[in-house]
Design goal:
alpha+beta; globular; 6-stranded antiparallel β-sheet; Thiol Ester Dehydrase, Chain A; 3 helices
Protein backbone atom coordinates (compact mmCIF):
# COMPACT_ATOMS: atom_id res chain seq x y z
CA UNK A 1 0.00 0.00 0.00
CA UNK A 2 1.31 3.44 -0.98
CA UNK A 3 -0.70 5.62 1.42
CA UNK A 4 1.12 7.33 4.31
CA UNK A 5 0.30 5.63 7.59
CA UNK A 6 -0.97 2.53 5.79
CA UNK A 7 -4.58 3.76 5.48
CA UNK A 8 -6.52 4.48 2.32
CA UNK A 9 -7.83 8.03 1.99
CA UNK A 10 -11.45 8.27 3.05
CA UNK A 11 -14.06 10.30 1.19
CA UNK A 12 -14.19 12.68 4.18
CA UNK A 13 -10.41 13.27 4.03
CA UNK A 14 -10.54 13.95 0.29
CA UNK A 15 -13.53 16.24 0.80
CA UNK A 16 -11.65 18.19 3.48
CA UNK A 17 -8.60 18.51 1.20
CA UNK A 18 -10.67 19.61 -1.79
CA UNK A 19 -13.34 21.78 -0.22
CA UNK A 20 -12.29 24.87 -2.22
CA UNK A 21 -10.66 25.53 -5.55
CA UNK A 22 -10.94 24.84 -9.25
CA UNK A 23 -12.04 21.23 -8.81
CA UNK A 24 -15.11 22.42 -6.92
CA UNK A 25 -16.06 24.78 -9.74
CA UNK A 26 -15.71 21.94 -12.24
CA UNK A 27 -17.75 19.45 -10.19
CA UNK A 28 -14.98 16.93 -9.48
CA UNK A 29 -15.57 14.31 -6.81
CA UNK A 30 -13.90 11.25 -5.34
CA UNK A 31 -15.16 7.93 -6.68
CA UNK A 32 -12.97 5.30 -5.00
CA UNK A 33 -9.44 4.33 -4.09
CA UNK A 34 -7.45 1.13 -3.74
CA UNK A 35 -4.08 0.13 -2.35
CA UNK A 36 -2.21 1.99 -5.10
CA UNK A 37 -4.73 4.15 -6.98
CA UNK A 38 -7.19 7.00 -6.53
CA UNK A 39 -10.17 7.70 -8.82
CA UNK A 40 -12.16 10.90 -9.25
CA UNK A 41 -14.84 11.90 -11.71
CA UNK A 42 -15.91 15.12 -13.42
CA UNK A 43 -19.10 15.94 -15.32
CA UNK A 44 -19.00 16.79 -19.00
CA UNK A 45 -21.32 19.80 -18.95
CA UNK A 46 -21.43 23.54 -19.65
CA UNK A 47 -18.54 24.10 -17.20
CA UNK A 48 -16.18 21.62 -18.86
CA UNK A 49 -17.08 21.69 -22.58
CA UNK A 50 -15.37 23.77 -25.25
CA UNK A 51 -17.53 25.79 -27.71
CA UNK A 52 -17.89 22.81 -30.09
CA UNK A 53 -19.55 20.68 -27.41
CA UNK A 54 -16.61 18.40 -26.62
CA UNK A 55 -14.85 18.02 -23.27
CA UNK A 56 -12.28 20.82 -23.08
CA UNK A 57 -8.69 19.56 -23.04
CA UNK A 58 -7.89 22.00 -20.26
CA UNK A 59 -10.65 20.48 -18.12
CA UNK A 60 -9.13 17.03 -18.67
CA UNK A 61 -5.73 18.35 -17.59
CA UNK A 62 -7.29 20.03 -14.54
CA UNK A 63 -8.88 16.70 -13.58
CA UNK A 64 -5.60 14.84 -14.10
CA UNK A 65 -3.63 17.32 -11.99
CA UNK A 66 -6.28 17.31 -9.27
CA UNK A 67 -6.46 13.55 -8.84
CA UNK A 68 -2.66 13.27 -9.07
CA UNK A 69 -2.10 16.05 -6.53
CA UNK A 70 -4.56 14.64 -4.04
CA UNK A 71 -3.09 11.15 -4.38
CA UNK A 72 0.47 12.47 -4.06
CA UNK A 73 -0.32 14.31 -0.85
CA UNK A 74 -1.83 11.19 0.74
CA UNK A 75 1.51 9.41 0.16
CA UNK A 76 3.55 11.76 2.35
CA UNK A 77 3.57 13.03 5.92
CA UNK A 78 1.75 16.32 5.48
CA UNK A 79 2.97 17.53 8.86
CA UNK A 80 6.41 17.85 7.25
CA UNK A 81 5.98 17.82 3.46
CA UNK A 82 3.64 18.97 0.73
CA UNK A 83 3.43 17.67 -2.85
CA UNK A 84 3.07 20.39 -5.51
CA UNK A 85 2.67 20.12 -9.26
CA UNK A 86 5.85 20.52 -11.27
CA UNK A 87 5.02 19.30 -14.79
CA UNK A 88 2.10 17.70 -16.59
CA UNK A 89 1.56 16.52 -20.13
CA UNK A 90 -1.51 15.00 -21.69
CA UNK A 91 -2.56 13.22 -24.85
CA UNK A 92 -6.19 13.70 -25.80
CA UNK A 93 -7.34 10.48 -27.45
CA UNK A 94 -11.09 10.75 -28.06
CA UNK A 95 -13.83 13.28 -27.36
CA UNK A 96 -16.43 13.06 -24.64
CA UNK A 97 -19.69 14.97 -25.07
CA UNK A 98 -21.73 14.32 -21.94
CA UNK A 99 -22.01 12.20 -18.83
CA UNK A 100 -18.97 11.78 -16.60
CA UNK A 101 -15.29 11.14 -17.17
CA UNK A 102 -13.32 9.14 -14.61
CA UNK A 103 -9.64 9.75 -13.86
CA UNK A 104 -7.51 7.08 -12.18
CA UNK A 105 -4.10 8.06 -10.80
CA UNK A 106 -1.42 5.42 -10.24
CA UNK A 107 2.17 6.10 -9.18
CA UNK A 108 5.09 5.35 -11.46
CA UNK A 109 7.70 6.53 -8.92
CA UNK A 110 7.36 7.66 -5.31
CA UNK A 111 10.65 9.27 -4.36
CA UNK A 112 11.74 11.32 -1.38
CA UNK A 113 11.72 14.63 -3.34
CA UNK A 114 9.59 13.87 -6.39
CA UNK A 115 6.81 11.61 -7.58
CA UNK A 116 5.59 10.64 -11.04
CA UNK A 117 1.97 9.66 -11.65
CA UNK A 118 0.12 8.26 -14.66
CA UNK A 119 -3.50 9.30 -14.98
CA UNK A 120 -5.99 7.61 -17.32
CA UNK A 121 -9.23 9.46 -18.04
CA UNK A 122 -12.03 7.30 -19.43
CA UNK A 123 -15.64 7.92 -20.41
CA UNK A 124 -18.55 6.05 -18.87
CA UNK A 125 -18.12 3.24 -21.43
CA UNK A 126 -14.51 2.74 -20.30
CA UNK A 127 -13.03 4.25 -23.47
CA UNK A 128 -9.77 6.15 -23.10
CA UNK A 129 -10.35 9.91 -23.43
CA UNK A 130 -6.99 11.22 -22.21
CA UNK A 131 -3.77 9.92 -20.71
CA UNK A 132 -1.53 12.17 -18.65
CA UNK A 133 1.84 12.01 -16.93
CA UNK A 134 2.19 14.22 -13.86
CA UNK A 135 5.33 15.06 -11.88
CA UNK A 136 5.16 16.54 -8.39
CA UNK A 137 7.86 18.03 -6.23
CA UNK A 138 7.84 17.00 -2.58
CA UNK A 139 8.88 20.06 -0.59
CA UNK A 140 9.01 21.15 3.04
CA UNK A 141 5.60 22.25 4.30
CA UNK A 142 7.31 25.43 5.50
CA UNK A 143 7.82 26.41 1.83
CA UNK A 144 4.11 26.26 0.92
Amino acid sequence: MIWFGGRRPSPAQVEAMSSIGLHRHLGMELVDCGDDWLRMRMPVDERTRQPHGRLHGGASVALAETVGSIAANFCIDEAEKVAVGQEINANHIRPAYDGWVHATARPEALGRTSQVWSIRIEDEAGRLVCIARFTVAVISSERK
